[in-house]
Amino acid sequence: AKRVGKGVVRLFDESMDEGVRVRRGIEGGLKQAIDRGELSLEFQPIVSRDRIEVVGFEALVRWNTSDFGPISPSTFIPIAEESNLIHELGDWVLANALTELAAWPGQYVSVNFSPRQFRRTNFVGHITQAVLAAGIEPSQLQIEITETAIFDDSDRAAETLYKLRQMGFRIALDDFGTGYSSLYNIRKFALDSLKIDRSFIDGMGRERESAAIVHSIIHLGRALGLEIIAEGVETEAQVQALRIAGASHLQGFYFSHPVPADVARDMAVARFAT
Ligand code: C2E
Ligand code: CA
Ligand code: CA
Ligand code: CA
């Protein structure tokens, strides 16, 4: 029989091992995912509040592993972000999103960039190259970054955003409201839109606090001349409440789940009746 003390130690070690093993496994698999053709993109429409027309699509990466089936980006993006893999993965996403977009002009494509990608040396040159290679206008790419990407080295981030905006790229601050930023300290960043995090939209109908936060983000964001994209819109009631509150754009399952490129292409010309 094993001694209790030893058993406790071993149990602890084993659970540590498992976490590390899973991480290594994902890291290893991800390294080969591109070559094996296991990555793909889905696109989710972003619609304007007034005319309910599709103004753009957010590109979302998908990984269908041959061994374990689909793995969520919420699982593998943070692991890629901890290593240099995020760069290769991000380059793949950007190039493929832009290629799809070139085939159906008229809308922008909104691409997620992790903090590490954004802080990469010569990020601006890198993005510019990609857009030139795809033969599209900078205004057809919206760069989505989170508060974490810009608050650590905020002077440098402000300069990068300024340059990007000068070149004509669109810039969106993603998951807004979940980080440390306030509307007061985002003034210095060149932005086009704020994406209100899904958690606040979700809470709107239930808690007065969420509704109040949504209202103040919309109110002050508009005063700063920003577009306001509400994320995670799932119900008719949310659509109506957000319209009244003055959100300029809506995105969520109510309109469409993320879909493959060929389905998105048909949606590009559709109007959503509400
Ligand atoms: P995110 O950027 O906040 O993307 C929105 C997430 O919410 C997506 O999850 C989308 O499928 C989901 N969603 C959209 N509408 C609704 C709705 O009405 N209800 C609910 N419950 N969910 C909705 P997904 O595709 O699983 O992506 C998760 C996260 O992974 C993204 O969050 C983003 O942070 C990251 N991610 C995805 N693709 C990329 C990528 O290409 N590059 C990077 N760096 N990160 C990515
Ligand atoms: Ca996003
Ligand atoms: Ca988001
Ligand atoms: Ca999110």
UniProtKB/TrEMBL annotation:
<protein>
    <submittedName>
        <fullName>Diguanylate cyclase (GGDEF)-like protein</fullName>
    </submittedName>
</protein>
<feature type="domain" description="EAL">
    <location>
        <begin position="23"/>
        <end position="272"/>
    </location>
</feature>
